[in-house]
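Shipment paperwork, digital attachment
Item: protein structure file
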Amino acid sequence: MKTIFITGATSGIGKATAETFAKQGHRLIICGRRKEVLEQLQIELSNITEVYSLVFDVRNQEEVENAIHSLPEEWKNIDVLVNNAGNAHGLESISEGNIADWDAMMDGNVKGLLYVSQPIIKIMKERNTGHIINISSVAARQTYANGVVYCASKRAVDVISEGMRIELTEFGIKVTNIQPGAVETDFSKVRFKGDEQRAATVYAGYEALKAEDIADAISYCVNAPERVSIAELCIYPKAQAEPRTIFRK
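Attachment content:
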């Protein structure tokens, strides 16, 4: 049984990952910004495993530090960190981009990942064991027009994952970077600021990945034999050839 810390656990890939690990009997620390949603998830998952919840915004370094330091002693030995929290905002060219959207993506996808990782890495290094899962995107592999800042933020995740692996392997800490393709979650709804009709077009005409597919992949990486370290994993739906190309019926 492992203690698994999951950011962005209230929806999408984060929630599916929490549900998958709960069924396997692992202890969970679920994190998110939406207190009521987080508490409801905690109630549901507590029926099958031990669950502790932390409410914070990964973009706020002080909130992150205070939350992690507030963990009771019996919850501080974190075995696995799943850096899932992140966002995409807007789909405009650089010349027309919204600065607030840029800040939200860089603060959440890059700085937030670092804010959460640093204190947990210190815990893992003291114990000479651990596993960090970073959720990147196929957008890190190929930049596309009108999504340049999002692509840049996810390529940064790739670089951070590589750097973590270089710095942490000697301490017995595994680092896995996962690049999902098109996954049908609230991702596009957030990107298009609640425009459900526009978001629906992203997943029209083909079968996108489900959040559970990525959760299964994360589970495989975490539950692989101790000698095995999955460095990178790129996952497309069958209909997607590369980040910009999806074959629709």
